[in-house]
Amino acid sequence: MTTIAINNTFNPGLAYAEYNQRKAAYIIAAIVAFTMSSYFVVGYLAGDLLFWTWDIAQGMNGAVGVGICLVMTAYQFILYSQGDVEGGKKATIVAVCVAVGFSLLSEVGQGMERDHVRMETKSIESPTYKAIVGKISAAASGPVAHPYSRQLERAEMKMARCQQKVSAGEWEDCIESTARLNGVNRMIEQFYQQNQQNALTLTDKAKTLEKDESNYHPLVNLIKNTISSTGVVASFILSLILIGFFEYAFHYLGRQLAAKRAELLKHGFDVTRKNRKVPNQYKVASNNNHPAPDESNTETTWNDELDKSSLASPADAALNQAADPEQVQRIIERGQSVPSEGVPQEAETVRSTLSGDSNGTDEGTPETEQTDSQPITRKRFYKRIYTEVRQLVTEGHVKPTVRPVTDAVTTVIKHKGHILGVKPALITKPQRQQIAQMILEHLEQENIVVRNKEGGVGKPKYLLAEKYKKQILGTREKQMDLIPKEAQLV
Amino acid sequence: MKNHHSEYDYLMHYHPTPQATQPTPGVDWEEIAEIIPFLVAALAWLLWALFLLIPSVFGLHNAPLFSTANNIVFTLMGFVLCIALSVAVRSGHGARAIVFLLGISLLSFWF
Questions:
Q1: Taking the domains of chain B in order of start, what are their residue ranges?
Q2: What is the ipTM metric for this complex?
Q3: Best label site of A205, A232, A343, B4, fewest CB within 10 Å?
Q4: How much is the pTM?
């Protein structure tokens, strides 16, 4: 039982060691894949693989081949190690097909080449082929004597005697002798023609035996006979199967690496031990007429923005500092503004609006100028709303429940929307409610509000924390002390 | 005497019952099942070494028929298949381990 318990416990050291092993295996597989692709592609483009003998043209072609293989292998390397890509399955399948297609085509060639070399070598070494080649060599080595030399000699003698008789006047002509001689000559000619024909037949036969498809590997022959195809097609299929195994192994190693990385990340461990520099946030000026990419995407939820809030910029940090309730309280009491962001001024405006105080600042052009110099992102937009609503809640102007907070959010957006660079009408009620819900959750995280233990229908979910309740009571008592007692009685 | 007889009877008829903690005689199939994946991995590495690595290095079997680059490429291919098989065995992916073993066997036979 103890062993099982130990096995089920996540060990980051072991997990990281295994991650490194898989990474090494995956890199080896990528190098092999690159070598395999290059072997065929470079050999095809440059003519041969002996790069030290290449001329300039071959070198250029070879460089192109290496470049193509490098890019495609890098593409595979990145693609396979992504793991499961949600929401883009079709694109992923297409991408994998492209990568695998290139690899198969470039790597199958060498398998077929191997089969071809094996078949040719075995064919050339066969005794039949050697015998035929010997005959052809003998025929080509010198002129072949025909077997009709005696007949030709006799016919020529008779022809000579006949011509002598005709010249002596004994015979009238040599028709018979001439016919005999012509017949023998025809026979000789036919013999040479037949000989030539035989030589051609032997050459054809030698050519056939030189690439005897029965000399393919038994596996190729098996496929060839099974599907009744040529040896080349069978060799292609076998090479495809073999390379398919390799490609699957490459893909599998990539996925395993991604799985191990995901496991480490799931348990809160990063796979790199180097410090990452956080890039600058994308900023949109408030006077920019073009909508920000985030804002145009209605599918993006406010929770997404909240998740990104861990990457706070220095300006956000300053905002957070300024949003500290005690600091804000001090600033308000002294009648000062926060020089960096001017948030308390805005908060004061909304507070005045919500509490019906007519002393609030006008919707201000000075604030617009301030905001123009500080471009607003969606995250900052949320933080501004949050800061103002939090102040209203801590001061007791707004109850910490969804509806009043939503109303407060609506008021903030209505009054500050143009400063923040958004049109209030574009933010729908469900979105405002979502913002209100997030604000309440954040207030709970900051211990400004607490869960109402007496939960139930009709009862508020959150209550203001005791600390803030006491602060509000203390402030009110001070205010009451400042009012003359006569006025209090009235 | 009575006591002696009873002790004698007890000793003569004593058959100790088997304890749960004691190893049962016979084949422990569970232990054998546990080592099968590692045997598969060992077999794969052996096939690779015997039919791919050694012939390529020493020019045995059909290796001299082909170019050195071709032999190296296919030996490395078998090496990657062996690595993938080892990873599959460690991850408990039995079906994939068998697929890779099949690939190595085919490659060894074809090489």
A1: 28-110
A2: 0.75
A3: B4
A4: 0.54
